[in-house]
Amino acid sequence: MKKAFNTCFMNTSSLLAFADWLKIERGYSAHTVTCYSRDVREFFQSIDKNEKIATQDITRDHLGRYISSLYLVNSGSSVARKMSALRTFFRYCLRQGYISIDPLAGIAGPKRSRHIPTYLTVDEVFSLLEEPKKKDRFFLRDKAIMELIYSTGMRVSEAVATNLLDADFSAELIKIRGKGKKERLVPFGSTAGDALQQWFPERNRLITARITRGDRPEREALFLNNRGTRLTVRSVERMVAYYGLRAGIAVRVTPHALRHSFATHLLEMGMDLRMVQELLGHASLSTTQQYTHLNLEHLTKVYDDAHPQAQKKEEQG
Hints:
Elements: H1 12-25, H2 30-48, H3 60-73, H4 76-96, H5 122-129, H6 139-152, H7 156-161, E1 167-168, E2 173-177, E3 183-187, H8 189-212, H9 233-246, H10 255-268, H11 273-280, H12 285-288, H13 290-306, H14 308-316
Antiparallel strand pairs: 1-2, 2-3
Helix pairs in contact: 1-2, 2-4, 6-8, 6-10, 10-13, 13-14
């Protein structure tokens, strides 16, 4: 067996090695790597308060006491996330030969409540997409990115990571790099294509201005900020929420709500669930099935509005 990790991660290089494995081998996002590293560090720090112990000597009892303490100050979803980080860590240790038995194996996490995603009606989406106006400094960019997210169902992280050469305008297809570095091709349609084409002259001006300032130009990114660098996830989230408020939409509008709307509207139009799974880039069909509940709600409403017996019942009421 390889040499065990130093006691309780006092050796920072051990944690860095784990973070590198998450990023390089597993293809996790920078945000996930940061969260997992923090969660693992917190676990070892909690043990370090009571006893000095090497990674290979951690037992189910250590983990059981720690997980029980988490429930006192964390929600079920937070506990589940921290346990996911620890599961990944111990699997990494097994792979590297630091431990011979996974101490977390067989320990169940909290049951997650079923979350029904927020989505917009078709009319609300259209109102949102029409909201960017000439008075807005980057209205062409803002309209283009919202059109692209709704047309493809891509995650906001995927949208800001998209490069100019990922889009094939003749075929109206775009290459999306999803979780775990998995790539998929998704059609984006003529409306989103037109919006992107209208944004390009402004994009080129931002690149030229950056070169004029003596800065290195960002030539690859599809979407740029006012400094001519790649747009961030947080910027898009703020922008979408702002236009949602202006459009008078009752719920808080997020890029993820646009992604959910894309999936819901396709199912309402009769698209096969597995095709929606492919477009969204879900690894498991069960993840996509969360939208079937929304689709059934829509079908029930259509039934109540159209079926003679349902209408008769309303008249009697």
